[in-house]
Amino acid sequence: MEDLVGFVSIIIIVFGILQIILFFKLWGMTNDVRKLRKQVAPNYSKLEIIKCLVFENKAKAKEIVINNFIKKISDGDYAFSTLKQELEENLKKLNEEIPQRLKDINSTSEFYDLF
């Protein structure tokens, strides 16, 4: 009988340790919500730009494009030159020019030195 109690105790201890490990693994997986949201959530900004173009609000569409550029810079996931080129291409689609202050900037550090 004592052998059975000892065996069950070991099983319960192992099960408890595995539960604790599982808890911390799940916690670590859900810690960075921003990365999960980027991968799962759709890109609403493109839909907003289309909506602005339908309502002929080019100024608002330009603002959304520039806001996306600034957001991507703050995320730090992309090279500045790639983002600037993407901004220029998106603004050309809207028949708009890149603002002069952004045109003069060549790096992320210069961007942060604006203010």
In total, how many domains does the architecture comprise? 2
SSE-based structural type: mainly alpha
Approximate strand percentage? under 5%
- SSE topology string: HHHHHHH
Number of helices: 7
Return residue spans where pLDDT drops below 50 for at least 5 consecutive residues.
none
Major sheet, described briefly? none
Distance between the termini: 76 Å
The whole-angstrom Rg is 25 Å
Overall description:
- The protein is mainly α.
- It folds into 2 domains: 30 residues; 71 residues, no CATH class.
- The protein is 77% helix and 0% strand.
- The protein has 7 helices and no strands.
- Helix 4 runs antiparallel to helix 5.
- The model has no long low-confidence stretch (mean pLDDT 84).
Short overview:
With 115 residues, the protein is mostly helical. The chain contains 7 helices and no strands.
How are the SSEs placed, and which strands pair?
Blueprint: H1 2-30, H2 33-40, H3 44-54, H4 58-75, H5 80-93, H6 100-103, H7 108-112
Helix pairs in contact: 3-4, 4-5
Main traits of this protein?
single chain, 115 residues, mainly alpha, 2 domains
